[in-house]
Write a structure and sequence with these properties.
With about 280 residues, the chain is an alpha/beta fold. The chain has a single domain (about 10-175, about 215-250), classed as 2-enoyl-CoA Hydratase, Chain A, domain 1 (Alpha-Beta Complex), CATH 3.90.226. The protein has helices at about 15-20, 85-100, 120-140, 160-165, 180-190, 200-205, 210-215, 225-235, 250-260, 270-275, and strands at about 30, 55-60, 65-70, 105-110, 145-150, 170, 220. Strands 1-2-3-4-5-6-7 form a seven-stranded mixed sheet, with helices on both faces. Keywords: Transferase.
Length: about 280
Amino acid sequence: MTRPVAQPFTEFRARDRVRALLDPGTFREILDPFARVESPHLALQGIVPQGDDGAVIGRGTIDGVSAVVVALDGAFQGGGIGEVSGAKLASSLEQAVNDNRNGTPTRAVILLETGGIRLQEANLGLLAISEIHSAIVELRSFGPVVGVVVGTVGCFGGMGIAAGLTSHLIMTRGGRLSLNGPEVIETEAGIEELDSSDRAGIWAMIGGAQRVAIGQAETLVDDDADAVAAAVRDVYRTAPATAVPARSTRIAAGRRLLAAVDPTGRPTPTDIRNLSTGGSL
């Protein structure tokens, strides 16, 4: 018997990723490219805008339950958040909050392929990200909010904080998660601080396997569309009756980890793993 060929999730564009996570035949896009809701700021800076502004909002069902799946298109402006894309994400999550309040259980999944705010729309992007953060926190009171980081852009900046606010984060080994990206750190602090071309070192520090190992993500999956979809469904199928304290509320554990790290000693990824599991340097 021939084994089915795996479909790498990273090879899907944002729209196909959203469709892959919803029940077959239920995908309905809100403000698709034909709506032409584009950023009014990019053309003024010589950048060709995109009809969906790099954000795809899908409504449908997951295991028969109403769901919203939002995705950022890393191929457009590095998945950066601007006025329009940010408003699309924030409003879709806020609508999910309203649906839950009004008695329609609605699941929320966020596909994070983004460098953070779009520098051409920095202030507007920051405002939108703050609204996204607030919506995620409020949605958590109704059930798990699932984040997915698979690569190839990774998840950085203010949307790295959004990933940290989710109830359950799914990553592949190729996914990266951090506040500042390697290139930004090298540019600001110099190659002595971090060599952004050291791919093995970068993934060892902020890749999916490391984030899961140190408790900053919950599930490590293969880069396979079926595997990612199954992991999302498993979160909801196994969700406890009472909410597990969100990662972002474990403040004491975070403080203990920070207190144990000597910033002058350059701890290795293995050192951080040991500290995260109660060990010492």
